[in-house]
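Hi V.,

You were right to ask for the full record rather than a summary. Here it is.
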Amino acid sequence: MNSFCPVMWREDPTPEDQKDCKECGLYQQGSRMIWGEGNPKAPIMIILDNPGAREDHEGNPMICGTRQTLQKAAYEAGIDKEHLYVTYIIKRQPKRAYDKEKTREICIKHLFVQLEEQKPKLILCLGNVAVQSFFGNPELEVKGLRGNFYQMNGYQTTVAYHPLAARRRPNLYALLLEDMQLVASELRKQI
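Predicted structure:
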């Protein structure tokens, strides 16, 4: 019997011409730029607000709760991990307070570079921050948009609750799974 077991997704190296970006100021917090995780040629691009922890305090590789919950929902929805690529609105993990709005405005340009290069078939924005940034509207919320696809920035896009929210509030997990099933169903139509 095949059962779910979370795995470390391979990290997509940050392009050399982007690696030393200092425009948003997060480099001063000591976090490195993480371009994305998973298969860069995947038909599904998942957008989160920022990278989660990939190493514990001793520097050992780890799978954070967000990735565990996301992988579990994808597995249960029947989405192969090779069909997924995860990226972020901001490419560095914030370690302390920062100007969130300004940083997102600056950093989203990296996401648009990725979209132009990777051209995914579907985009899934996870959580209100990713939705508001990608849709360009600070008033939007997942609960009012989930369950449908939208043409956004030239891409077929849907939304779901952030996996960490579903982990903290188990009643949201069923909704996250529904939304992953919606993505799986749409992907089957396209491939």
